[in-house]
Every structure is written in C-alpha cells, then in structure tokens.
Design goal:
By secondary structure, this protein is mainly alpha-helical. The protein is about 75% helix and about 0% strand.
Length: about 325
C-alpha cells in the first residue's frame, strides 16, 4: 500500500502572503476609502456650518434676554419680550402624546407581522407600512384638519363634561371646544410616526434567531411567553432606537402641527391637553416670514434650541441602545 503524499500545511502560506502584499487593486481601494472618509467629514462640516450660522443669527436674542429667553413664558413680540418656555412645553407635550399612542400600536403591528400573520398577509402589512411612511406630513395635517377636527371637537366637549367634577382629570381634560389642541396634534403625530416605528421594529424582530424562538416553544412556552421571554428582551436595543427615531420625527414636525395645535399667541405651561397651544417648529413656520430684528433672532433661537434638544435625544438614544446591547451580551 503506497503512502499518500499530502501537501504541507504551510505550502499555501507563501501564495497567501504574496497575495496580501500585492499592490494590485490598491488604487481603487484607496480611492474608495478616501471617498468614504470625505463623505463622513463633509457631513460633520455641514452640521458645524448649520450650527454656526443659526447660532450666529440667534445670538442677539441669547445675549440680550439671557436666561429669561429659555425659562420664561412671556412671549410678546410687540413689547420685545421673548420667552420660549411655552413653545418648548407644547413641543414636549405633543411629542409625548404621539409617542405614548404610537409605540404600543407600532410594536403590536410589528409583532403581528413577524410572529402571527400568514406569510401573504405579512407582505401586505409591510407594503402598507412602507407606503404610509412615505406620505408627506402635510397630507396627514390636512386629513386631521378636515376629517378629525369636527368629530374630535364633539368628543372633547363630551369628555370635558364627563370629568368636570373629577379633581385631577378636570385639569387634564378641560373645556376644549375648538377641536384644535395639544391632544389633536399629538394624535396626528402618533399616526405619522406609527409607520416609522413599525418598520424599524419589524426589522429588529426579524433579527431574533429562529433557534431561540423554536427552543422556547419546544420547552413548552406559549407564543405569548416566547414573545415576552425571547423576542422582546433580544430586541430592546433596537426598539429603543425605533422609539427615539419616532420621537425625533415628532419633535421636528411642522406643517401638521401648525394646522392642528391651535396657534396660541402666547402659549403657557398647562396640563390641559385640550387647550390650544403652540410648538417650536410651528411657531417658526408661522411667524418667521414677517419677523425682523430681535423677533427674527428669537425665532431662529427656537430652531437652535430645538436642534440642540434633538441632538441630545439622539446621543442619549445611542447611549441607551449601547447599554442595552451590552446587558444583553452579558458584559458590563
């Protein structure tokens, strides 16, 4: 019986080393690398230029009015008084309402599409969500103004009358009668951000390993127990990112909020979600064309403040996602 001559394990080493050391194709690789780096640097430069230009135009308001600009609700352009706290409060309230209504709905739709619905229905749900995410915001605003405003007006009156004698609820659901209010704007924002959160959540749920889900079912877990014990914990980081993405969209929405929030000339800090108010983006869109001097600087300052808040939210969301990912992997 003749011995079989096997190649030495290191026989292929010189060819691999030669291939790695070869400069063939290095030119396109370097060009692509520099193109990618240039694109990343360009984004940072554009962001820095936007921050600088807007801050420069808003600086007169920041220096002239000081802390009163940020922590006062006294907004009287005719008297040269500019306090933006009421606008910031309105933005926060409608964004909170939108996220509060949209998140459970979005996660429910995403779970249904990935874990329960038949395959043919899943593709239909995915297509519909993608189409809704592409609808312009002005369309949602017009639908809310012409379709939802009148029914909500009657609903608000009935709700206010029903809770008029309840100590806490009567301050949350006051005598709203116009149909345009913080709650109306929040409802439309919820409709707008639901497709976005749903699409991202669905993609996150699809990344859950099938073996983990089938293992839980094989051990006797019900479908709901499998979802709460396997799917949700594995997807917490991605779900957090989806919610933060929807929150950023809600805080920056302009046209739909302008049509539905009520356009209060001097918004105040109120817990009455049926009251008319105003938000930072809608105030800029409505008043900037006719503004000049300190009034213009104050409105641009609204944009700078909203930009900083959005950046803080995005950075915080990335931090939260990173922490959750580390916890899921069992590292500190």
């Amino acid at each position: 019986m003749s011995a079989v001559n096997l190649p030495h394990p290191d026989a292929a080493a010189p060819s691999v080393a030669t291939a790695l050391a070869s400069s063939k194709g290095a030119g396109p690789d370097k060009a692509f690398r520099w193109l990618a780096v240039s694109a990343g640097v360009l984004v940072l430069v554009i962001l820095a230029l936007i921050t600088y230009s807007t801050t420069q135009k808003a600086w007169p308001a920041f220096t002239k009015y000081g802390t009163d600009y940020f922590f006062s609700t006294d907004w009287r352009p005719n008297q040269q008084r500019f306090g933006i706290l009421g606008f910031a409060w309105g933005t926060a309230v409608i964004s909170f309402i939108g996220v509060l209504l949209a998140v459970p709905t979005s996660i429910g739709i995403a779970l249904f599409a990935t874990e329960v619905a038949p395959r043919r229905l899943r593709s239909t749900i995915t297509t519909v969500m993608d189409l809704l995410a592409a609808v312009p915001s002005v369309v949602f605003g017009l639908v809310g103004f012409y379709v939802l405003k009148a029914p909500l007006q009657d609903l608000y009156r009935s709700l206010a009358d029903a809770v008029a004698d309840v100590p806490v609820l009567n301050s949350i659901f006051g005598q709203g009668s116009a149909g345009t209010s913080l709650l109306t704007a929040g409802i439309v924002l919820a409709i707008m951000i639901t497709p976005i959160i749903t699409s991202v959540s669905r993609e996150v749920f699809d990344t859950v390993p099938r073996n983990d889900k089938e293992g839980a079912l094989a051990l006797g877990a019900t479908r709901s127990e499998m979802i709460t014990g396997v799917v949700i914990p594995h997807s917490l980081g991605g779900l957090t990112g989806a919610v933060m993405l929807g929150l950023g969209r809600a805080m920056g929405e302009t046209i739909a909020v302008t049509l539905l929030i009520g356009a209060s000339s001097r918004p105040q800090i109120t817990f009455d979600i049926l009251a008319a108010s105003d938000a930072m983006p809608s105030a800029i869109a409505r008043k900037l064309p006719e503004a000049s001097g300190d009034f213009q600087a104050a409105l641009i300052g609204l944009g700078v403040t909203l930009f900083l808040i959005t950046m803080i939210i995005n950075i915080s969301s990335r931090r939260i996602v990173a922490v959750m990912d580390r916890r899921m992997k069992g590292t500190s």
